[in-house]
């Protein structure tokens, strides 16, 4: 891949993602104040010691935004990785084994997708304990249904090719076929889908936090920051708009990179884009 061939839109997305990741990694070094430190009056305007102002409890918005990047990106990335691990293994197994296994996995997946994702998540999270790993697991399981669908589609496309049939004739097992034949030839479209699912996870986590069932206070995350400061909009306070803009910006940056990756992928068949 030639660096010069990367379009400006993709570079904008890459830079935006890099800034968010750096904030997440080096949050304690970058943030001017602590994540939970009350430093002034509530809803102070931007300026002086507070670049973005303060929130509903007098905490520095910039510091909360930086720490929130760590929480939001970590949870969304963990849920996306877990959903891909689960969805790809099950979808590739269904495509390779076929028959009863394929029908069982596919019909169960259709059943899960028939339930509205947000309603299902709200019901489950309202019943289960409010632990971070529970939130990640619920998000991953719900998102894995989408991964299963596209994983099965691209795997079936590759599974009928001659080199896969040759591997079967050689007596190779299902696991060997999945990891040595199908996975390398479906990597490009799946990487693009990974980016889309990551962007969705960011938005989904922010929605759950806004509704009170995502990241629990006093931990900072962008959706929770919108919820905490939403009442200020009535009085002309823009504190809720800052994390909302951060959510939108990161989602757009991810989609810009994904759009470039998808354009490089000529087709799902073989999963190989232009070099």
UniProtKB/TrEMBL annotation:
Localization of this protein: Cell membrane
TM segment ranges: 6-31, 73-98, 118-142, 194-213, 233-258
Residue intervals of the ABC transmembrane type-1 domain: 69-258
Family annotation (PROSITE patterns): ABC_TM1
CDD domains: TM_PBP2
InterPro entries: BP-dependent_transpt_permease, MetI-like, MetI-like_sf
Key words of the record: Cell membrane, Membrane, Transmembrane, Transmembrane helix, Transport
Superkingdom in the source lineage: Bacteria
Its membrane topology: Multi-pass membrane protein
Transport in keyword set: yes
PANTHER family in the record: OLIGOPEPTIDE TRANSPORT SYSTEM PERMEASE PROTEIN APPC (PTHR43386), PEPTIDE ABC TRANSPORTER PERMEASE PROTEIN (PTHR43386:SF25)
Record-stated family: Belongs to the binding-protein-dependent transport system permease family.
Descriptive protein name: Peptide/nickel transport system permease protein
Organism: Sinorhizobium kostiense
């Amino acid at each position: 891949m030639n660096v010069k061939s990367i379009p400006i839109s993709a570079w904008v997305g890459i830079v935006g993602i890099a800034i968010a990741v750096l904030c997440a990694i080096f949050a304690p070094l970058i943030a001017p104040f602590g994540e939970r430190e009350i430093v002034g009056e509530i809803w102070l305007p931007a300026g002086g010691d507070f670049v973005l102002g303060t929130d509903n409890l007098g905490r520095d918005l910039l510091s909360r935004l930086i720490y929130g990047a760590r929480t939001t990106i970590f949870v969304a990335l963990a849920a996306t990785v877990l959903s891909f691990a689960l969805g790809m293994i099950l979808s590739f197994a269904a495509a390779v084994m076929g028959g009863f296994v394929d029908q069982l996995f596919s019909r169960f997946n259709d059943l899960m997708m028939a339930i509205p994702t947000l309603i299902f998540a709200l019901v489950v999270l309202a019943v289960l304990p409010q632990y971070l790993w529970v939130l990640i697991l619920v998000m991953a399981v719900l998102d894995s249904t989408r991964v299963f669908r596209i994983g099965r589609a691209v795997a079936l496309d590759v599974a009928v090719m001659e080199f896969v049939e040759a591997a079967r004739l050689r007596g190779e097992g299902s696991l060997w076929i999945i990891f040595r034949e199908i996975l390398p030839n479906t990597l490009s479209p799946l990487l693009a889908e990974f980016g889309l699912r990551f962007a969705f996870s960011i938005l989904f986590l922010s929605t759950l936090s806004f509704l009170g069932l995502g990241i629990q206070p006093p931990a900072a995350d962008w959706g929770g920051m919108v919820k905490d400061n939403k009442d200020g909009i009535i009085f002309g306070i823009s504190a809720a708009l800052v994390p909302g803009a951060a959510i939108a910006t990161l989602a757009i940056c991810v989609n810009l990179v994904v759009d470039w990756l998808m354009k490089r992928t000529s087709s799902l068949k073989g999963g190989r884009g232009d070099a």
